[in-house]
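User: Reviewer 2 asked us to show a designed sequence for the structure in our supplementary figure. I'm pasting the structure tokens here. Could you produce the per-position amino acids so we can include them in the response letter?
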């Protein structure tokens, strides 16, 4: 069984995917079962787990409890190499290809190797592109990189194509958590026409209309974090 192959099969059959992002920093152990009840009632197909700045001790325990309460694949979406846990199912092995900071292009990945060699996580190489979104987001602050200009479609297209040539298996277009402006329809369309690998879009998506628009423009998977954090009834509405 491969979680990546499941994504490929879904994209081939045009089944859209929805990931709920859980940030360990913003979750209490005691609230996990009620949160999972909400997730069960949502259309979520995946859980993404990770955050830009987490340095607490409950990382493994939170994932374990989510797993006990929920039957969805858990993908690590790590802010740094410490956020690797055997309790999860797969790891988005991110390289921040929109930026020019070697720490997030390759150094963090090298630091992760010894842990990954001991692990049975499925590793999915993922091109991670931060797109300009109206505010300075945590990704920008932590990575000390600039996002790509949202009007420069050519550079965005060439960056995703180069990532595909390099062997990346997923592209993640990121406006940044809590972004003012989500990744635009034009950007999603222009990226989708360039690549043959699945496309994930997240950051600043706050309504079912915006989810729908991202899917219509060509996103294979949409990620929802803040909107669900702020309102656990988001999907009911
Ligand atoms: C952040 O793309 C995710 O990495 C989700 O963003 O929190 O804005 O939904 P939001």
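Assistant: Here is a per-position design you can include in the supplement:
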């Amino acid at each position: 069984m491969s979680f990546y192959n499941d994504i490929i099969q879904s994209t081939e059959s045009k089944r859209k995917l929805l990931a709920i992002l859980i940030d360990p920093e913003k979750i209490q152990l005691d609230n996990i079962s009620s949160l999972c009840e909400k997730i069960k009632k949502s259309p979520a197909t995946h859980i993404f787990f990770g955050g830009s700045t987490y340095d607490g001790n409950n990382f493994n325990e939170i994932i374990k409890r989510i797993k006990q309460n929920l039957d969805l694949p858990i993908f690590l979406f790590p802010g740094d190499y410490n956020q690797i846990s055997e309790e999860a199912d797969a790891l988005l092995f991110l390289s921040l290809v929109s930026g020019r900071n070697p720490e997030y292009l390759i150094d963090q990945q090298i630091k992760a190797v010894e842990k990954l060699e001991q692990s049975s996580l499925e590793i999915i190489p993922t091109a991670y592109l931060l797109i300009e979104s109206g505010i300075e987001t945590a990704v920008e602050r932590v990575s000390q990189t600039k996002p790509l200009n949202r009007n420069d479609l050519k550079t965005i297209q060439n960056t995703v194509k180069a990532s595909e040539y390099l062997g990346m298996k997923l592209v993640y277009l990121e406006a940044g958590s809590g972004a003012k402006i989500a990744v635009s329809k034009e950007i999603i369309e222009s990226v989708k026409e360039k690549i043959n690998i699945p496309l994930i879009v997240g950051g600043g998506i706050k309504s079912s209309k915006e989810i729908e628009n991202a899917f219509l423009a060509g996103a294979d998977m949409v990620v929802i974090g803040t909107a669900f954090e702020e309102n656990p009834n988001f999907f009911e509405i």
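For the response letter, you might also mention the following. Residues 21, 174, 177-179, 202-205, 223-227 surround SN-glycerol-1-phosphate (CB under 6 Å). The chain has a mean pLDDT of 97.
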